[in-house]
């Protein structure tokens, strides 16, 4: 079933956004995109989603920022930038080019900046994130349950309508059957008594009549099927 659940927390300690979406699927297919600080917890969250949601194409999206301990920062790779600058200066001298803005060019070279790794969440921080994750997961499951109930009611209503219409059809059966019998008896008599009786043509004419006679049997079968479905 399709489902959706989200949690958004923004306080002095953290900024957290969790979204869980699910689409219909025969199997279980989970994709996750989470902040680096929660990477170690991704497998645990996948396992929990698999146990609760069981099936479907599920997408987990988490953005987490620890406002009290945000250690991510850009660091200049000084040795590499110095090497870039010297190489650019030597090349400029060889070709007779201007040495202006060589430092700016060196800072734009690959890996001139590095980003310090973000520390994983502490146990206390993880408990807060996990509670929010479970709340979003429960919302997603409740969404799916509600949608399933709506679809079930629609199926029950359709079954009841079919059963009612089948009852209406039965009112026309007696007159229809008499008419069919009379036409069939007359046509069979005409064919058999005729000197131009053709067995192949007789079969071609008889087959549609037999199909009409089986319509009542199919209506009885459909009524029986809908009655069993309603009981189930």
CATH superfamily of the largest domain: Imidazole glycerol phosphate dehydratase, domain 1
Order of helices and strands: EEEHEEHHEHHH
Assembly type of the shown chains? single chain
Shape: elongated
Number of helices: 6
The first-level CATH class name of the largest domain: Alpha Beta
Radius of gyration: 38 Å
The largest sheet, given as strand count, sense and whether it forms a barrel, is:
4 strands, mixed
CATH fold description of the largest domain: Ribosomal Protein S5, domain 2
Overall domain count: 3
Order of neighbouring strands in the sheet with most strands: 1-2-4-3
Strand content: 15-25%
CATH architecture of the largest domain: 2-Layer Sandwich
N- to C-terminal distance: 21 Å
Task: Enumerate the spans where pLDDT stays under 50 for 5 or more consecutive residues.
Answer: 228-232
Task: Summarize this structure briefly.
The protein has 6 helices and 6 strands, in the order βββαββααβααα. The protein has about 230 residues and is of the alpha+beta class.
Question: Helices and strands in order, then pairings?
Answer:
Blueprint: E1 3-10, E2 14-23, E3 28-34, H1 42-53, E4 56-66, E5 74-76, H2 78-95, H3 102-107, E6 113-115, H4 123-170, H5 173-193, H6 199-231
Parallel strand pairs: 3-4
Antiparallel strand pairs: 1-2, 2-4, 5-6
Helix pairs in contact: 1-4, 4-6, 5-6
Describe it.
With 232 residues, the protein is α+β, with helices and mostly antiparallel strands. The chain has 3 domains: 3-69 and 122-148, Imidazole glycerol phosphate dehydratase, domain 1 (Ribosomal Protein S5, domain 2); 74-115, no CATH class; 172-231. It is 59% helix and 18% strand. The chain contains 6 helices and 6 strands. The strands form 2 sheets. The chain has a 4-stranded mixed β-sheet with strand order 1-2-4-3. It has a two-stranded antiparallel ribbon with strand order 5-6. The protein is elongated, with a radius of gyration of 38 Å. The two termini are 21 Å apart.
């Amino acid at each position: 079933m399709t489902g959706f659940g989200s949690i958004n927390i923004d306080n002095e300690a953290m900024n957290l956004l969790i979204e869980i979406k699910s689409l219909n699927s025969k199997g279980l297919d989970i994709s996750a995109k989470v902040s680096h600080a929660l990477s170690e917890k991704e497998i645990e969250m996948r396992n929990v989603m698999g146990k609760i949601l069981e099936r479907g194409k599920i997408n987990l999206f988490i953005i987490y920022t620890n406002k009290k301990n945000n250690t991510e920062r850009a660091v200049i790779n000084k040795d590499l930038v110095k090497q870039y600058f010297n190489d650019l200066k030597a090349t400029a001298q060889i070709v007779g080019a201007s040495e202006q803005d060589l430092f700016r060019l060196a800072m734009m070279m690959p890996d001139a900046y590095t980003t310090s790794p973000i520390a994983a969440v502490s146990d206390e921080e993880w408990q807060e994130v996990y509670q929010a994750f479970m709340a979003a997961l429960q919302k997603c499951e409740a969404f799916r349950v509600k949608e399933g109930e709506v679809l079930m009611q629609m199926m029950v209503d359709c079954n009841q309508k079919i059963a009612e219409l089948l009852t209406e059809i039965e009112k026309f059966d007696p007159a229809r059957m008499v008419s069919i019998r009379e036409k069939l008896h007359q046509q069979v008599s005409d064919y058999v008594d005729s000197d131009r009786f053709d067995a192949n043509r007789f079969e071609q004419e008889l087959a549609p009549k037999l199909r009409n006679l089986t319509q009542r049997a199919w209506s009885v079968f459909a009524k029986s099927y809908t009655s069993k479905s309603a009981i189930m």
